[in-house]
Write a structure and sequence with these properties.
The complex is a heterodimer. By secondary structure, chain A is of the alpha/beta class. Chain A contains 9 helices and 10 strands. Chain B is an all-alpha fold. Chain B is flat. Classes of the chains: A alpha/beta, B mainly alpha.
């Protein structure tokens, strides 16, 4: 990409999260993610990867610190301001989180609701352009033939790609992917990761993905962040990251216990 | 090991207190029989009369049938209206007391308390209350059935809402949707079939309940039931009962078949 644009997209300043006054999710995390980056976050289960991602779009409220999205604080935003900030942040989930009884088209259109006044969405009054757009999005993830299928008729991999089409529809600046491939087989995982790469390269979206698989992390990540026990213990370019770092992230936890 | 006191099953210690409780209970039973003057013979005393009435009812007076039809239709109309009004209220109320929608525990707590009070009132008492408020006639019956339906549907429906998959709610929150949009896109698609099913279930109960509401003046076929019984015209009572049974069975059958189809 153009090297002139090294602008911060997401900034975390002294972010701390404590669950139920005891369990520490994140300890004083400082992190800057620049526009257009493809960042992979690795770490053991329970290390705080999900907490990190979910505090960025405030599905989780942080205990201390501030998070800026494109220069605007999301931790201080309320009501409509918060919703407009969230509109700029797409999310992909481990369990896809589609409405299973709704059609694929409706699931994709759901990504667009924050662009409409409430009453229009309630009566399903999406514009013709947006319906066309949804169809385009489905074409991009190779699911054009499934527009009117019910979401629960699709396989796991297909459902995840519908979720990606939903994000395309939302047209955000940032995509948070929380273990997007954890419930998929290796080949489908590859396909989903390639779709995420497409969003990053073709649409210029900043991607932050939590991954379990070191192999996928190596293949797709430009930058890697290692998390252990709520702290960032590694942050560097993927190409310059030796294997030993992954060993440390995944096995180093043992001597900590 | 040599201690053989443990090789045999030890005898359970006899507790004198248990025997005393047994004696107290039996004595209490006999005392209460005497005080309330309830004897099993009372049940059998009227048995000959029962068979007599039964024979009369078993020969229904079919000439009475055309007279029954208008009030039968009124009964069904009452049930339909009561179900629609009650279910609509229950729909909105359920959204307000489901803890995965409204996070404020004070609001849900107070609203649930009100719901529980409404649910404790039986349908006939509701009928009597509304007859006192709006006077004799089907309006009282419709209001009674509405409140009764509300009680049935609200409980089942809010529990269904609370058991949905929270994933889509999270996804809609993440796209920047507001509360109403979350309800429309993430919650309702998951629970609409339940709502329709519970409303049909309430309708089944209402058809049965509405047949007796007329007894207390709240409209419907119950009025004739009361009139014929009062003048000991059991042949006509028999006609009414038969008609009610046929209608109830028919509606139950259609309703439960459609509920089955919905849940697929």
């Amino acid at each position: 990409m153009t090297d002139s644009a090294i602008e911060p997209m997401i900034e975390l300043r002294n972010v701390k999260k404590v669950y139920d006054k005891k369990v520490v999710g994140l300890k004083k995390v400082n992190l800057t993610i620049n526009k257009g980056e493809f960042v992979v976050v690795v770490g053991l289960s329970g290390a705080g990867k999900s907490t990190l991602l979910r505090s960025i779009n405030r599905l989780i409220d942080v205990t201390e610190g501030d998070i800026l999205i494109d220069g605007k604080s999301i931790t201080k935003a309320r009501g409509k301001k918060l919703r407009l900030l969230r509109r700029n942040i797409g999310m992909i989930f481990q369990n896809f989180n589609l409405v299973k009884r709704s059609s694929v088209l409706r699931n994709v259109l759901a990504g667009r609701v924050a662009y409409y006044p409430t009453w229009k969405t309630i009566f399903n009054l999406f514009t013709k352009e947006d319906k066309e757009r949804a169809y385009e999005a489905l074409k991009q993830v190779d699911l054009a033939d499934k527009v009117y299928a019910r979401a629960d008729e699709l396989s796991g991999g297909q459902q995840q790609r519908v979720a990606i089409a939903r994000v395309l529809m939302q047209n955000p600046k940032v995509i948070l992917a929380d273990e997007p491939t954890a419930s998929l087989d290796p080949q489908t995982s590859l396909k989903v990761m390639e779709d995420l790469k497409m969003l990053n390269e073709k649409h210029g979206m900043t991607v932050i993905a939590n991954l379990h698989s070191v192999e996928l992390a190596r293949k797709f990540g430009q930058r890697v962040i290692g998390i252990r026990a709520g702290e960032i213990i590694y942050d560097g370019k993927m190409s310059a990251t030796p294997e030993s770092v992954f060993t440390k992230i995944y096995n180093g936890g043992e001597d900590n216990d | 090991m040599t201690d053989d006191s443990l090789t045999q099953l030890p005898k359970k210690r006899f507790k004198i207190i248990n025997l005393i409780w047994l004696i107290v209970l039996i004595a209490g039973l006999f005392i209460s029989i005497n005080v309330t003057n309830t004897h099993i013979s009372v049940l059998l005393e009227n048995f000959s009369q029962f068979s007599d009435i039964f024979v009369q009812m078993a020969n229904p007076d079919w000439s009475y049938f055309p007279t029954v039809i208008p009030l039968l239709l009124e009964t069904i109309k009452m049930a339909v209206l009561g179900t629609i009004i009650g279910s609509a209220l229950a729909f909105v109320y359920s959204l307000l007391i489901a803890r995965n929608i409204i996070k404020n525990k004070l609001v849900t707590g107070v609203l649930r308390f009100i719901m529980n009070i409404i649910r404790t009132i039986p349908d006939l008492l509701l009928g009597a209350i509304f007859v006192a408020i709006v006077g004799i006639g089907p309006v009282a019956g419709i209001l009674a059935l509405s409140v009764f339906t509300f009680g049935v549907v609200v409980k089942l429906f809010y529990e269904a809402i609370e058991t949905i998959d929270p994933g889509p709610i999270e996804a809609m929150t993440a796209v920047g949707a507001n509360k109403l949009q979350i309800i429309c896109f993430a919650i309702l698609p998951q629970v609409m079939t339940y709502f329709i099913s519970y409303s049909l279930y309430a309708f089944e109960i209402n058809v049965r309940a509405s047949t007796v509401l007329g007894y207390i003046g709240a409209g419907g076929i119950g009025l004739y039931l009361q009139q014929t019984l009062q003048v000991f015209d059991y042949a006509k009572t028999g006609t009414i009962i038969l008609v009610i049974i046929v209608v109830v069975v028919l509606i139950d059958y259609i309703s439960s078949k459609s509920r089955e189809a919905l849940m697929k």
